[in-house]
Amino acid sequence: MVDATGPLVSAETVAANLEQIQTTDADYRLIEVNIQQGTYESSHIPGAVSLDWQRDLRDTETFDVLSPAALSGLLGDCGVTRETTIILYGDFFNWFAAHAYWLLRYYRHENVVLLDGGRNYWVENEYPMTNEVPSVPSREYHAPEPDESIRARRGDVEAAVESGGCLLDARAPPEYRGDILAPPGWNEGVQRGGHIPGAVNTPCRDTIQTDRRFRSREELAALFDEYATDEQIIVYCRVGERSALVWTALAEILGYENVSYYYGSFVEWGNSVGLPVENATSADLR
Asked: Looking at residues 81-103, what average pLDDT do you find?
């Protein structure tokens, strides 16, 4: 049995319970969330279904989060009910799986966990993989209204800039400084380099170990406890994938109740006319 009371589940636990998890009933559903095309098709954890971050997990016309109706249809097609324990994992550093995790928490799905270390950790430790695509029966899913307390919108960020509130930038230091607009090969059209005024650079890489699993709670507390007493913490990155890892560390692992996720992130801020952007010659970490 998989404990879904915490945000993370270990590869060891999933592997030990894989026979139960990979069935097509609605108790569990493994969902792989990737950015690289063809990754799932080449191989995946037995029983896993696939979601594409760009195609499936955002409104392709407005680029906003999915509506309750759209999310309900998507999860229902994945064989998920409101009671299903969803186990999310993905490629890279679990970036987009973490984004999916935030989205499900935004829509108040209770039983959802991240596979710690993601796809890479699973593969590197030679746990089972397959290229067989499961045939999962559709279910009824009804998403409630979202929890707006964990989402920051542009107006909230503007207010934080004005008041000197806590803004954490989860991008790499060269992006924060404005040396580059995006990591090599990644550019969703940011027109200006730099960061939101007053933001502190807390790269998402600092939250994970070299094997891509999260650092221990004690290590994360050492990184972030100076922000614990801030009235509100807003995390952002470029398109929201890396800040989802930081949000998970702060809100779900450390249990901070004052953390919100700026969904628009720097793609929205850096492309908006009239909004200020800071550059820096070095990304000093507070």
From this structure: 96
Per the CB < 8 A criterion, the answer to whether 126 and 100 are in contact is no
pTM of the model: 0.95
Instruction: From the options 3.40.250.10, 3.40.50.410, 3.40.50.920, 3.40.50.150, give the CATH code of 8-124.
Output: 3.40.250.10
The domain 148-270 having CATH identifier 3.30.110.10: the answer here is no
User: What does the domain layout of the chain look like in residue ranges?
Assistant: 8-124, 148-270
The residues that are catalytic are: 237
Cβ–Cβ under 8 Å, residues 48 and 66: no
Encode pLDDT of 22-65 as tens digits. 999 999 999 999 888 899 999 999 999 999 988 899 998 998 99
Torsion of the alpha carbons at 71, 77, 78 and 79, rounded to the nearest 10:
110
